[in-house]
Design brief:
By secondary structure, this protein is an alpha/beta fold. It contains twelve helices and 13 strands.
Length: 314
């Protein structure tokens, strides 16, 4: 089972690739990205390849030459950046996905895993315990591309029987990689600033509450979704989450470990984006149909984040 991970050097990809290689064998996982890591350059790693997802010919060549059967498509322009470069956000997020789907259809790819986002929800969506099937009317370019992507993967599944699977990811918090321009980036930045400078200026208001997930749970969800039997899946897109907390709540949890930590608030344009997203989401369908079950809550995640980051930041 040869696996291609596109966007391999992004926040999720940089941790998903090692997990997949450990589970399925190093030679069976190809990492592709528009930015090749310094480590790959220095080692001339033939399993780490350059790929612009908008270049369909290059994509087809990689798929054919490496006998790819599984694709994780993670390359995307995230919410905050996409608001500043909407055309680029559309090109990467939609035209890139179209290339993946067409290659998947024409090369008999067995499974495609493509993450959607809580950005598909909007101000008309119920904000508390948001259900899987609800109003999808986002007000950001990122959210628009994710809704469009969900429609596309359903179309390709129904028309061409292409096995595309997706989860709507909440904010992802990692102790290894920095975020890449999302509205939930504060939940990673706050740990670095707390350890280095004992203070943080939040670009969201203190009472802004959003769904979140620790990276180990995110990686687990991706692999679980890959391995789920087709008979288990009753839909193409699932809500998943681990926890929900406000900026003030995570700040107070950090203060339990770093008492001198202080936080200030200076909301910017990202506050308007966050205002359109849910405070909590209902992922009961994923839990029921393919046994999704996260391991970390706010307390456990904060403790682990600080322990891991202390070794590198201090």
């Amino acid at each position: 089972m040869n696996i291609l991970v596109i966007g391999a050097n992004g926040q999720i990809g940089s941790e998903l690739v090692p997990a997949l290689r450990e589970k399925f064998g190093r030679n069976n996982v190809i990492a592709a990205d528009k930015k090749i890591s310094k480590k790959s350059k220095s080692s001339n790693d033939d399993k780490d390849l350059f790929l612009d997802v908008l270049n369909k010919e290059s994509l087809e060549k990689i798929v054919s030459e490496n006998d790819i059967q599984i694709i994780f498509h993670l390359a995307a322009i995230l919410s905050a950046i996409a608001e500043n470069v909407p055309q680029k956000g559309w090109d990467i997020n939609i035209n890139g996905l179209m290339n993946i789907l067409e290659v998947g259809r024409n090369h008999n790819i067995k499974k495609i895993i493509w993450p959607s986002s809580i950005a598909v929800f909007g101000p008309k969506t119920p904000k508390i315990n948001t259900p899987n099937d609800t109003i999808l009317r986002p007000t950001t370019m990122y959210g628009i591309t994710k809704v469009s992507g969900e429609l596309l993967i359903n179309y390709y599944h129904e028309k061409y029987d292409l096995d595309v699977r997706s989860v709507r990811l909440p904010g992802i918090i990692s102790n290894k990689t920095l975020p890449g321009g999302g509205t939930t980036d504060y939940a990673v930045e706050i740990f670095y600033e707390a350890l280095k400078n004992k203070k943080y200026i939040s670009f969201l208001k203190r009472d802004t509450k959003l769904p979140m997930m620790y990276m180990p749970d995110c990686i687990s969800a991706m692999i679980m979704l890959l391995e789920a039997e087709s008979s288990q899946l009753k839909r193409r897109v699932y809500n998943i989450t681990s926890m929900s907390f406000s900026v003030e709540e995570i700040a107070q949890e950090i203060k339990r470990h770093i008492p001198e930590f202080v936080i200030q608030y200076d909301p910017d344009f990202r506050q308007e984006i966050a205002n359109t997203w849910p405070e909590s989401i209902n992922d009961s369908l994923a839990r029921k149909e393919w046994k999704w079950n996260p391991s970390y809550d706010l307390c456990a995640m904060t403790k682990d984040m600080i322990q891991k980051l202390k070794k590198r930041v201090l």
